[in-house]
Each structure stands twice: as C-alpha cells, then as structure tokens.
Amino acid sequence: MQWTANWIKPKDKMGDVVPVFCKAFTLEQTVQKAELFVTALGVYEAELNGKRVGEFILAPGWTVYRKRLQYQCYDVTELLQAENALKITVGKGWYR
C-alpha cells in the first residue's frame, strides 16, 4: 500500500522530551467500522478514550527507515464514543 501524507511533528525541537499528540473529535452519527492506521519515526503508544490501542510494545518495530516504514492498523470501532480523545505518545526508539 502506498501512502501520501504530511508528517505530524512538534513545532519546536524537543531534545529528550517525549512528544504527545492529542486530537479530540465528535461523532455526528453511528460508525459501522473504524480503523486507526499508525506509524512513527521512532516508537509510539496510542490511546483512544483512555484505553490502549493494540497490544504492540515499541511499535512499529525496527526497520531500515530510509527504505520502508512499518505501520499498524487497529480496529477501534468498539472504543469510539460520541466525544473522543486520541492520544499518541512518540519516543525516539531505533530511529534516533
């Protein structure tokens, strides 16, 4: 699968501080199925409405970052509510 997107990153350099990216969103109607696709240059942990998404530890895992980047797809349908909060914590991992 080929992806085209812009990277989400902190506004300023953070040194050794771990960035946390948050997004709140509201559902206007019932969702039949929802999938969250995530990757990072480094490692990440994702939470939706305070519950951990997936079972990976130190996802996405090691890869040759200049050639390919692994991503994970999570079914988050059961975690959704009317008001939602997605939080992704990103660490340096093997990338840096």
Describe the structure.
The strands form two sheets. Strands 1-6-3-4 form a four-stranded antiparallel beta sheet, with no helix packed on it. Strands 2-5 form a two-stranded antiparallel sheet. A hairpin with a 2-residue loop joins strand 3 and strand 4 (51-52). Helices cover 0% and strands 33% of the residues. It has 96 residues and is mostly beta strands.
Estimate percent helicity.
under 10%
Average pLDDT rating: 90
Amino-to-carboxy terminus distance: 25 Å
Number of strands: 6
Largest sheet: 4 strands, antiparallel
Strand content: 25-35%
Compact summary:
With 96 residues, the chain is mostly beta strands. The chain has no helices and six strands.
Describe how the helices and strands are arranged.
Layout: E1 20-26, E2 35-38, E3 43-48, E4 51-52, E5 72-75, E6 83-91
Keywords:
96 residues; mainly beta; 0% helix; 6 strands; globular; 4-stranded antiparallel sheet; two-stranded antiparallel sheet
